[in-house]
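Page 42, continued from yesterday. The earlier attempt failed because a stray header line got pasted into the input along with the sequence. Redoing it now with the clean sequence only.
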Amino acid sequence: MGKLAVIAIGGNSLIKDKEHQSVEDQYQAVAKTCSHVAGLIEEGYNLVITHGNGPQVGFILMRSELASGVLHQVPLDSCGADTQGAIGYHIQRALVNEFRKRGIDGRVAAVVTQVVVDRNDPAFGTPSKPIGPFYEKEKAEKYRAQEGWVIVEDAGRGYRRVVASPVPVEIIEEDAIRTLAEAGFVVVAVGGGGIPVIRNEEGDLEGAAAVIDKDLASGLLASNLGAEDLIISTSVESVALNFGTPDEKPLSKMTLDEARRYLSEGHFAPGSMKPKIETAIEFLEKGGARVIITCPEYIVQAVRGERGTTIVR
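This time it went through. Structure tokens are written below.
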């Protein structure tokens, strides 16, 4: 085996913009990202790939809404499973094609992955993650009454469903992922943060109406697998202090202590860079060697220390 790394690819690797959202557009975006990911194989890495799925889940929920007069609603956990399969297929196909072009003898497998969350997680008491389409008030109230949805008014644009975003605690298919990685497969897993499931009072798994943060789940997987590197692919080249201001300062390297300090000083936006830094801190505290944050086109240079942001203990 080469050095094991978990690479989490963000939404920009799946959908470039609102004008390029078709399935073929999504595949082309994935293929471009996979051309860079294949470079990590040539650098000697064994890889486990995770990915986001927010827009794709939204598309399924929109289709479900448009078809609500003739078909049942699609539960949120099933939406997660559907997108893991579809996006996993795109990544598999794109990587196999890229391997052929480069003469790499590589195998790829996607694992539909369940991730356990605590049914008593406080997030279930304060759902805050918007999902799905906007509704008129009357329809929103109907879903609130019939389905038990939590509905909020969204900045004058209409009403939306919100769900919990609990902390991931256990990855059900972890042993399968490890076995495949040790056998030399590039493994696609924990898509969208994993399909959220809880253990009921009998100990059985049940799907949960929740969304797990993709970066937190990726960090948990990386730690549990004993990965040396966690690579977070995002829309910017590097982490920056005072992001988006005239005083913006890109960081090529951070220590764990510096990451903790910058986080406490409020430099990183919630829902954007903050969960990535929180994940980096937790991964390093659990023994990981290095976290790299950069955009897809620079990941090979970043692992060489030439671009992006590297965080070490």
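Notes: The two ends are 24 Å apart (CA to CA).
Reminder to self: strip header lines before submitting.
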